[in-house]
Specification:
Pectate Lyase C-like, 1 helix
């Protein structure tokens, strides 16, 4: 091997080692929090209103979604979001609609580790349907009681129900666990490609369909 080639390999190896040292040093300073290296910072926006509605429809992309009861008679939606990746919150034909508006350019996808989240505080009212469509993020519904259907479609992330009740619950998830803790739902159908499906507190006299490709299924009646 030529001396010039050996020298080039030594220099290249030294640069790799130096880059690793710099990376470890930088990550140690931010306590290995990748979000602090993100070129896209987040901001928190709140929407509070008292308009009545019967349904909830959420269409987002890469955000955690939480729906839980409100402590007041008003609806509050808290969006932790990016400048070019914001959510609109409106009431349309009796439906609370939360819709993502994506105005990002290709440069906004570089070093984008920003964490986004949508939290909906729902007052104690009678809801008919809840629909959530997401791509990447966890979805949590807590103490939600609806007359009709709860429908959740997700790609990557966990889906969790805590003390919820509905005539039917339909969940489709690609990668992530599905956990259901229900009261008296009449029909529960959950399908996951990669992940566990767990129903620690199951149906009471209803139909339950649980499907997974590479995961475990655990179901308890009562």
């Amino acid at each position: 091997m030529r001396k010039r080639t050996i020298t080039a390999l030594i220099i290249a190896a030294s640069l790799v080692v130096l880059g690793g040292v710099v990376f470890v040093g930088a990550m140690s300073r931010v306590k290995w929090d990748f979000t602090k290296l993100s070129m896209n910072q987040t901001e928190t926006n709140e929407y509070i209103f008292s308009e009545s509605y019967q349904n909830i429809s959420i269409q987002t992309d890469t955000a955690d979604v939480v729906i839980r009861p409100s402590e007041t008679d008003e609806t509050k939606v808290v969006c932790k979001e990016q400048e070019r990746l914001k959510h609109s919150v409106t009431v349309e034909d009796g439906t609370l609609v939360i819709r993502l508006t994506n105005t990002r350019e290709w440069t906004d996808y570089i070093l984008n580790f920003a964490f986004t989240k949508v939290t909906v505080y729902v007052p104690k009212t009678q809801l008919k349907d809840i629909t959530v469509k997401n791509s990447t993020g966890n979805i949590t519904l807590q103490n939600m009681v609806v007359e009709g259907q709860i429908s959740v479609k997700n790609s990557t992330g966990n889906v969790k129900f805590k003390d919820c009740d509905a005539a039917s619950v339909l969940v489709k998830n690609s990668t992530g666990n599905i956990t259901g803790n229900f009261l008296t739902e009449k029909q529960f159908a959950a399908k996951s490609n990669t992940g566990d499906v767990k129903v620690p507190k199951g149906t009471k006299g209803g139909l339950c369909e649980l499907t997974t490709s590479t995961g475990n299924i655990r179901f308890t009646i009562g």
